[in-house]
Amino acid sequence: DTGVSQDPRHKITKRGQNVTFRCDPISEHNRLYWYRQTLGQGPEFLTYFQNEAQLEKSRLLSDRFSAERPKGSFSTLEIQRTEQGDSAMYLCASSSTSRESYEQYFGPGTRLTVT
Amino acid sequence: KQEVTQIPAALSVPEGENLVLNCSFTDSAIYNLQWFRQDPGKGLTSLLLIQSSQREQTSGRLNASLDKSSGRSTLYIAASQPGDSATYLCAVMSGTYKYIFGTGTRLKVLA
Description:
The complex is a heterodimer of chains A (115) and B (111).
Chain A: E1 5-7, E2 10-13, E3 19-24, E4 31-37, E5 44-50, E6 53-57, E7 65-68, E8 75-79, E9 88-95, E10 105-106, E11 110-114
Chain B: E1 4-7, E2 10-14, E3 19-25, E4 30-38, E5 44-51, E6 56-59, E7 62-67, E8 72-77, E9 86-94, E10 98-101, E11 105-110
Parallel strand pairs in B: 2-11
Antiparallel strand pairs in B: 1-3, 3-8, 4-5, 4-9, 6-7, 7-8, 9-10, 9-11
């Protein structure tokens, strides 16, 4: 069990550019979640996948955001035409439906700064 | 709609004090409640997970309790140390298995 990994850990981009983040869940976990955390706030849910199916999207996920999980393994989160308001920590978590506790395991996050 | 509130927002205590952090939630239909620690600029470290059928969990100097009927959880930290300084987040899982987080309690333990 190597834990949830995220790449990159930090990203600085200029407004209007596109960025893509990657999340690798714990290998046997079939659920994968994305959250966003802005300064001084708790994380907020963005979307989640069960295997390759995207089952829920938050209203926070505007049409500039897209997430994928091809083949039910790693996931990518893309933000198009970034805005300064997109600056935040993007957290990924994974869990297994075979575990009764539904516990989610979080990665270290990707910190995005839009200048 | 589930809402999670944490009180106090910030807390500063001298080293060695016992302290209690509070978390309240509006919908008692939860799967579990989890307490996390977050150091500045870092990700989340899981502290304790309490399933909906449980009343409390303990790990070392930490004890978390859950009262679903009143929509409350407390995190008790015994004999606080400067290394405990961090933001503590409470998260409730309900509905479609996603976490709803509080805004956290920023703890500073003074040496």
